[in-house]
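[job 4471] stage=fold_predict status=RUNNING
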Amino acid sequence: MKNNYYWSDDWSKEFYIDLAKAGFISTTYDTKEGLVLLPELQYNYAVLDFQNLHISSKVKKLMCKNSYEFLINSRFNEVLQEISLQHKYNWLKDEYAQLLKNLHNDKNNNFKIISVELVCKNSGELIAGEVGYIIGKTYTSLSGFSSKEKKYTNYGTLQLVLLSKYLQNNNFEFWNLGHPHMQYKQKLGCEIYNRSEFLQRWYKATK
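[job 4471] inference complete, writing structure tokens
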């Protein structure tokens, strides 16, 4: 409980699921010997309780438009590809990307990898999206992207707001957004939980 980062060369689905259920969020790290799994039991977590969701006036205007579709699991591989292309340092690659694809196709009752998509209704263009996992009554974000085109300004935030609404409407207890230091998470309405506080909530909601 004093440490946060660990590493492993075990890329099995079973091990990854066990880590996730224990509260670890796993990324990757390049070593001379190859890519390793980098599970982290964070010191602090950003948690969104849906009643705390903050929607800016700009996003409210976008929500009134009939220009987009919000989808779940419709373009999984494309979301992974866009995440890889957009982020300069991308940990979602190689063995990890394949692991997520395998888990996405797996039938596990209490663990599901999903993709979230925001699509332009007219062109079918993928504007924003993310991947994450469902355990019990919780959803955890792993990584995401949003288009940098000027015409899609604030659509990345729109995707987050629509996802929050989706989770709330489907009776999720909370949304785990991982590291709290990114400003957009607090703007969205997240509260910061230390490790002990988070794990107490986590174990109750993931059974």
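[job 4471] summary: The beta strands are 25-31, 34-40, 44-48, 68-72, 112-120, 126-135, 138-146, 174-176, 191-194.
[job 4471] exit 0
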